[in-house]
Specification:
Elements (H helix, E strand, L loop, with lengths): L15 E5 L3 E6 L18 H9 L4 E2 L8 E7 L2 H12 L4 E9 L5 E5 L2 E2 L16 E2 L2 E12 L9 E10 L6 H8 L13 H9 L8 E9 L6 E5 L4 H10 L5
Parallel strand pairs: 4-11
Antiparallel strand pairs: 1-2, 2-4, 3-4, 5-10, 5-11, 6-9, 7-8, 9-10, 11-12
Amino acid sequence: MAESVLDSAPDDAPLTLLYRDAHLVAIDKPAKLLVHRSEIDRHETRFAVQMLRDQIGQKVWPAHRLDRGTSGVLLFALKPELAAALGRQFAAGAVAKRYLAVVRGHPPESGSIDHPLSRQRDDYEFQGARSSREAQPALTHFRRLATVELPVAIPPYPQSRYALLELTPVTGRKHQIRRHLKHLAHPIIGDSTYGKGQHNRYFAEVLNCSRLLLACTALRLQHPITQENLQLKAAPSGEFADLLKKFGWTAP
């Protein structure tokens, strides 16, 4: 496996390929890289779809999505019908997903967040689907892997607590993990939408970590052609990996 690109990789840095055959290709998506062209980020010129197409010389279709700030395993198909088949696996909950996140506070050692979420329009949907107030079932399991307490006063607390979580979302709602952890009152560090600005600034200015600390580290699914079980993995890299070292944490 090739070395992953860093969070601030130059524009011409190649994407890290985690898996490739005649039907599928998986990459380790860097944080801050869009998957698709976005209505919100019209000024951006770099997209995973285009970069991967140029890199391997073939058209690709994403089988699922990762938020711009989220890094890790991103799977593509080399034909649209295969992407649709994979999409059905994701929709049916047949794909096992594992994420790592650094959050504020010390959550319980393990638990489940069973909290319905309203539908939100995807950033790459220009004029089509709309957000809806109707809540959809959403379930995320979590396990606490490590904790740290720093002698840093961020109001209203005299010290700051953080934790490393392993998360396994069962459903796939937009921003599900980020919204669920906000609901649990343990938002992800670096999350400008659902997180806490003071903690985000501390990590950026003092700990040199300015990214969303959420990474998809593993996918397990059935190959749509060969029917074999695929296990795709990507360890945290760049600023995420550096932070784990600073805290003395080991990712599984």
